[in-house]
Amino acid sequence: MSKIEAIKIEGGFLVIYNPMVIERLEDTRKNYKQEDYRQLERFYENKIQQVHIVGEYVRKILDNYREALQFVEDYFRLNYNSFLRKYFRGRTEDIRRNITPGKFKQLFGELSPTQLSIIKDNKSQYISVLAGPGSGKTRVLVHKMASLVLMEISSMSSC
Prior knowledge:
This protein has helices spanning 38-63, 65-77, 80-88, 101-108, 113-120, 137-157. The protein is built from 6 helices and no strands. The chain is mainly alpha-helical. Helix 1 (38-63) runs antiparallel to helix 2 and helix 5 packs parallel to helix 6.
């Protein structure tokens, strides 16, 4: 993963934060379903978007201070979806990821659509990749590991 620059190890140290554990204090006999956690999921999706919005604001400050001021004014004046349409048109997928668009492109930009669909799959417990020699199975495995480390595990640590 260091070779594809998914992680960078300097001085022999690699820091990975453990995910937060949330423990239920109420009746544990209830079987919670995925939809019970939807509100919490939306909160963290919004938190990721906010990081991208702040990043965009910083870029605007560096490029054009007046545009940055307009950006802030629109953020507080416009409805949230209108704001996203105005400033992130065509980039809604980018601001839903918990890594920068540049890093995503660097790591996953050269993968085929089939390989990328395997990398993006975070629902399947098991994934079987059957292909001939030289077709990119090892590449998919390395990039899937990078995806787990950078995107899925790091988003769990914010929970």
